[in-house]
Specification:
The complex is a heterotrimer of chains A (253), B (424) and C (321). Helices cover 26% and strands 32% of the residues of chain A. Chain A is of the alpha/beta class. In chain C, the strands form three sheets. In chain C, strands 5-9-4-1-2-3-10 form a seven-stranded parallel beta sheet, sandwiched between helices. In chain C, strands 13-12-14-15-16 form a five-stranded parallel beta sheet. Chain C has a three-stranded antiparallel beta sheet with strand order 6-7-8. In chain C, 30% of the residues lie in helices and 27% in strands. Chain C is built from ten helices and 16 strands. The chains are: A alpha/beta (253), B alpha+beta (424), C alpha/beta (321).
Chain lengths: 253, 424, 321
């Protein structure tokens, strides 16, 4: 069985993230880049499925510029057997990422794609579903449990109304939610082995996909900086503030 | 000059060193202003594990830690909070060299009347059922050791300090130190100037940059450190009062934390940080280890050797932070000859939490009396002053990093204990 | 513009979030001299369709294959209707249903999609949307290239629509079974009515600190407030150490890292070790009897008071709302 895990390289969003003064970009120069946390969960799940079954090849895929070697090496150290780097220096929207992933899937012919439910930079939550639709594969999004049995998957999905369990045939696309697992830190052996594992580079031009943007960012702006340290005098005032429109306890509908 | 920004002592840095000193100074009636670049305790203090092992290579160091514990117990009453958790501590040996180290330590401890003794491997196994013991050749146990809870300690210093009139300004980085004719006059921040005849540099990893503001070299370096905290595992319960363990051969130390286990490592080749190159708003609590960090992998490997139930798949949190090392792993406490009134209090080399109670007392004595009731010869700030090899930043970093790398790895031979006897 | 709003329902009634999304759609339609319709998908959905028709005209696809909202069948149905009715803009409230279904439908329609929008603007160049990114630290203003455009709408950003004087029409659309076939099989839904969510996934977290004196008080104050707010209960390390709160609730450097929309800190002093676990929360409320507690420096709203007095009042007011 082959499992493909797309991994995105993202700035660590636990750091302070602000837009540039002219709004043309997000300032990430001083911020460490990491493997998208949801993709790390997806990768962990793929590696665990491999550890349980023994006959699994886990292939990590990254699409982007030079910096993508780093998260792919991380993925290899965590237990992926092989990595594919689609070298592309252009900035891509989820639609074009999904189309490039589709081309990689057609080359690699995995039975299962597991990826993060969203990337923590653009928070789009689109690519996995796009990919499933483009491939015509069934999807199970927001997974908190994945069980592979023969050529079928049983997946617990986190929904607003509870945990939904679904069964679907392979091949399929699964997107990982936070509670699927806690990803590991690579072992010494994992880090050593990763240095020798194959990392194939494909030029984006070698895939049969013409980049067609669907989403154009006009500008970025930082969230209004919080006014910290404000005091209220009473329970009533506190509740007034928390229930006004836009506040967390505002009743909708 | 405004009256408001005038004090007897200005302290740079609201970590445990600065806050403990502020509390002691204010207790003797001094007017103290503490200026903190970020939030209280958000440097090394906020990332520390706080292990207290009172028996050190020198008797005077041991006396300081023992007295420090008495200060903590007093502070617990004043602030109404539990700071010291008395778990007892174990040192374990898996080689003959390490066993000798332990024998020497026990001998020295006994010579100064300290409660420490060898413990049989069977007893170790009974005390710590979750630890591997089949490869041990000796161990020693000290029942009065434990750890200080860093958050509670910093909060207590601040609480009692404020009661005594200490003023603490957070989010106020010091941008300049005012020196006139070899005498310190105060400090500058983006918004104001503050005046005092004494300024104390308790900037932790930033302290060498503070010294540079006064054109002084403080030979400390910023060294990375990692520890893991396992989530509680019902199959391997860790009692809240399980003893701390030091395994110098594996370079690790452990203590209980919220039902899980903290395991930290003194890396042979630790990360180094150039504090001047970090962003101005660098926030140590946001530091994060990469999933394929070599240091974390080494930490997990060493941990797995001693605690076989912990491996890379174990649910855990990795904490990484920056500690301040010196070329001999002892802090710098006091003035340098070139600038009067500029006191340094930094370089605790991973032991700032547990040294801070007595260091606050010592610094207050040095500042107010000009001398201390403790023998401070081993921690004087000027011991490398103007010494070749301790001036260039790069040399300093190499020396401090080498010290940090050897910190647990090297076999320790306690030699002549000041006021005690030759240990071996 | 011709706008289609996907109605989310439980088989009996519309979900409130869909009415906020309808307001967004009505605003766009009004500014572009367009029209708005609902799309109701379901197996026995005439009741929902009738309710929806009080607000806007309804397109109704009824099929036993839509008894459960599976992504592949719902997406196929949406794409089919959008194509046949020349829809320009498809919108749905940003919920776990639409997050699953809508991108799949967008992919069948060319891939022009914006997620979780909080504002829109009609300009000469077309529609612009504000979409939060980086967990809300940055908002991007985006334009979609291609048609139809697909957006999920954060329901808190728009008020709920109001019913019209007279109901609109309902048009039933027949769709072939093959179009609506799903390859996913529904097994079960475990509702979470009786259990509190985990701190890491909850929209609201109520945490207790040292001020809580025992487990019963923790449950009665922290737990109860979490329940009436529909959130999770959390704890500082001090309470876990004291055995007052269970381990898995610990928020902080050596516990769990959370970033909910609302974090309520009850009797927590706010040491950096605790802040490390919650400071990325959208809104932080602190209640503490010590006016100097550092938690007030990071809190958006602080109330100086004894949690034993304040929290029961809060619970009572929230319950009587």
């Amino acid at each position: 069985m082959k499992i493909l895990v797309p991994t995105k390289r993202v700035p660590d969003t636990d750091q302070k993230i602000v837009a540039s003064d002219d709004g043309s970009r997000v300032n990430v120069e001083h911020i460490p880049f990491i493997i998208n946390p949801f993709d790390a969960i997806a990768l962990e799940e793929a590696v665990r499925i491999g550890e349980q079954r023994g006959d699994v090849e886990v292939v990590a895929v990254g699409i982007g510029g030079e910096g993508y070697e780093q998260p792919l090496r991380t993925a290899l150290a965590m237990g992926a057997q092989r990595a594919v780097h689609v070298r592309c220096d252009e900035s891509l929207d989820p639609w074009n990422v999904a189309r490039l992933l589709q081309a990689v899937v057609l080359r690699e012919t995995p039975q299962l794609v597991i990826m993060g439910k969203q990337a923590v930079d653009d928070d789009a939550n689109q690519t996995g579903q796009f990919l499933a639709a483009l491939l015509g594969w069934p999807q199970a999004t927001f997974a908190s449990r994945v069980v592979v049995e023969g050529d079928r998957l049983t997946v617990d999905r986190e929904t607003d109304h509870g945990i939904e369990t679904v069964r679907l045939p392979l091949p399929a696309v699964v997107t990982a939610d936070l509670r699927l697992n806690e990803p590991r830190y690579a072992s010494m052996a994992g880090i050593m082995k990763a240095r020798k594992k194959p990392l194939d580079v494909i030029a984006v031009g070698d895939l049969p996909v013409a980049i067609e943007p669907r989403l154009r960012v006009i500008s970025y702006r930082s969230a209004e900086s919080r006014k910290r340290g404000e005091r209220v005098k009473s329970v009533d005032e506190l509740l007034d503030r928390l229930t006004q429109p836009g506040a967390a306890l505002h009743k909708r509908g | 000059m405004t009256q408001m920004n005038t004090a007897d002592v200005i302290i740079i840095g609201a970590g445990v060193a600065g806050l403990s000193t502020a509390m002691q100074l204010a207790g003797r009636g001094a007017k103290v202003i503490v200026l903190e670049r970020d939030r209280v305790g958000n440097g090394s203090t906020g990332r520390a594990a706080g292990l207290l092992g009172q028996l050190r290579g020198k008797a005077e160091q041991t006396r300081m830690l023992v007295d420090g514990l008495a200060i903590v117990k007093e502070l617990e009453k004043l602030a109404d909070v539990e700071i010291f958790v008395q778990t007892g501590s174990l040192r374990i040996a898996e080689t003959p060299e390490r066993a000798e180290e332990i024998s020497a330590l026990v001998e020295m401890g006994k010579s100064i009347g300290f409660d420490i003794d060898h413990m049989s491997i069977d007893d170790v196994a009974r005390h710590l059922p979750y630890m591997r013991t089949d490869d041990l050749v000796d161990a020693c146990y000290c029942p009065t050791d434990g750890h200080l809870q860093p958050a509670e300690l910093a909060a207590a210093y601040l609480k009692v300090g404020k009661q005594r009139g200490v003023r603490c300004e957070t989010n106020t980085p010091v941008t300049g130190i005012i020196v006139e004719a070899g005498q310190v006059r105060g400090v500058r921040t983006a918004a104001a100037e503050y005046f005092a005849p004494v300024v104390m540099n308790a900037g932790g990893p930033w302290s060498y940059l503070n010294a540079e503001l006064a054109e002084t070299v403080l030979p400390t370096a910023a060294i990375g450190h990692y520890y893991l905290t396992t989530r509680p595992d019902p199959a391997n319960p860790v009692d809240r009062l399980s003893p701390a363990v030091r395994d110098r051969e594996l370079r690790i130390y452990t203590r209980p934390e919220s039902g899980g286990l903290i395991v930290g490592i003194y890396d042979a080749e630790p990360d180094r940080y150039d504090m001047g190159k970090l962003p101005a708003d660098f926030d140590m609590s946001r530091m994060k280890a990469a999933r394929d960090s070599l240091q974390v992998a080494q930490l997990i490997e060493a941990t797995h050797h001693r605690f076989p139930w912990i491996n890379e798949r174990t649910p855990m949190t990795i904490t990484t932070g920056i500690m301040t090392f010196t070329p001999d792993a002892r802090p710098f406490c006091g003035e340098m000859p070139n600038i009067q009134g500029l006191f340094h209090c930094s370089g605790f080399s991973g032991h700032g939490i547990v040294q801070s109670p007595v260091i606050g007392l010592i610094m207050s004595q040095l500042i107010l009396d000009g001398h201390s009731t403790y023998d401070v010869s081993s921690i004087e700030a000027d011991r490398y002053f103007d010494m070749p090899g301790y001036i260039d930043r790069r040399d300093i970093e190499d020396r401090c990093a080498a010290m940090a790398g050897n910190y647990y790895g090297k076999v320790e031979r306690p030699t002549v204990a000041a006021g005690g006897q030759a240990a071996k | 513009m011709k706008v289609l709003v996907i109605a989310e329902h439980d088989g009996k009634s519309l979900r409130a979030a869909s009415l906020s999304c309808l307001t967004f759609a009505q605003q766009v339609a009004q500014a572009t001299e367009g029209t708005v319709s609902w799309l109701v998908l379901g197996s026995q959905a005439t009741g929902v369709a009738a309710e929806a028709a009080k607000f806007a005209p309804v397109l109704l696809v009824e099929s036993s294959r839509l008894a459960r909202p599976m992504a592949d069948s719902c997406a196929a149905a949406i794409a089919n209707v959008a194509k046949n009715h020349n829809v320009n803009l498809i919108a749905a409230a940003s919920t776990s249903f639409s997050k699953d279904v809508l991108p799949r439908a967008a992919a069948l329609l060319g891939g022009a999609m914006a997620s979780d929008i909080v504002r829109h603007e009609v300009t000469a160049e077309g529609l612009l949307f504000d979409s939060p990114q980086y967990a809300g630290a940055v908002t991007a203003t985006v334009q979609l290239l291609g048609s139809p455009q697909v957006v999920s709408v954060r329901s808190s950003a728009y008020p709920a629509a109001t019913p019209a004087a007279a109901p609109f029409g309902i048009e039933a659309i027949a769709m072939e079974d093959a179009t609506l076939a799903s390859r996913c099989e529904f097994v079960e839904l475990k509702t979470k009515q009786n259990s509190r969510p985990d701190v890491t996934e909850a929209r609201i977290v109520v945490s207790g600190g040292r001020a809580l004196r025992n487990s019963a008080d923790f449950e009665g104050l922290v737990g109860k407030l979490a329940d009436v707010m529909g959130g999770a209960a959390g704890s500082s390390r001090a309470l876990v150490d004291a055995g007052i709160a269970p381990n898995e609730l610990q928020v902080g450097q050596t516990g769990k890292i959370v970033a909910p929309e609302l974090y309520v800190a009850l009797g927590i002093s706010g040491a950096v070790q605790h802040l490390a676990g919650m400071k990325n929360s959208r809104t932080i409320v602190a209640i503490n009897s010590d006016p100097d507690a550092p938690i007030f420096d990071v809190a958006d709203l602080g109330l100086v008071g004894d949690v034993y007095e304040v929290v029961p009042q809060l619970i009572e007011r929230l319950q009587s709302r």
